[in-house]
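Internal tracking record. Fields below are filled automatically when a chain is submitted to the structure queue. Please do not edit lines marked as system-generated. If the sequence contains nonstandard residues, flag them in the REMARKS field before resubmitting.
Queue: standard
Priority: normal
Entity type: single polypeptide chain
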Amino acid sequence: MKVDRILEIIIYLINHDNVPASYLAERFHVSVRTIQRDMISISSIGIPIYSESGKYGGYSILPNYKMKNSDIRDEEQQMIIQALESLATSYTSDTLLALIEKYNAIIEKEGGQKVFWDFGVTKENDQVQSSNRLLEQAIKERKHVLFEYRNAGGEKSKPYVEPLAIHYKWYAWYLFAYFPEKKQYRTYKVARMQNVHIDKTISVIEHGDIEKLMKGSEQAYYQTCIHIEVQFENAETSLIKEYFPDCPVERITEKCSRIFIDVPAKERLWKALLLSFGDKVKVIGPEEYRKELIETAKKFLSNYDI
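SYSTEM-GENERATED OUTPUT FOLLOWS
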């Protein structure tokens, strides 16, 4: 993860001088271009990075720079370490725990903790955490993986892919991978992966900027989302804003407002969320999705004697 890498680079440069970009790229399993961007990120937060060109050139942190309380205010220290510790409640990683220890060794925790975060409720089960560890190993060793997969529509498959990155979004872990059979980049939800096995085959493909590929794939995915109009009484505006903070509320009449949300076509979570509002919301369109939601509600009610 980027934040892990940048903090470890800072720690490494504090203890070493004139480190070549190629060495850092190899050490952290990224491209030289990614290391160059990381250096810009490190400089942007106030840590003075300088570089020397030539055969024996590399990156260093100015010798007179020390990470003291005067450089990072106490409240900033609290936010950084608490962010790392909170991440550890939702992500099992020995590397992350070691990183927290290293960061605590650099800064002092003074003044008492003032902000508390706990993402434990979002922590997925042991199977997902175990799969993540296998995927991390495969990514590090550039090996392919084989697993059983069931998509949101219930279709089963056995993908054979080259894992490139795992990332956390929408309260779940996802695998970004290269599917050699179709020569395509695809995303898989880790919770839907079963019996993950690492193959001995080592990839020789240079994929370039993985983060850029992921963003491109995500944009293509968003184009497949459904644009849904939801109406509700104005009295429910605060509740709607709580659940859909990124959706602007448009007032239609003195009694009624609406929002538009973009949801993945086959994801059941959105249906459950909309149905959880009961009679507080009304889905207007598209008509196909509206009918699908009504049919889902009917099937749910058919289990009960009402």
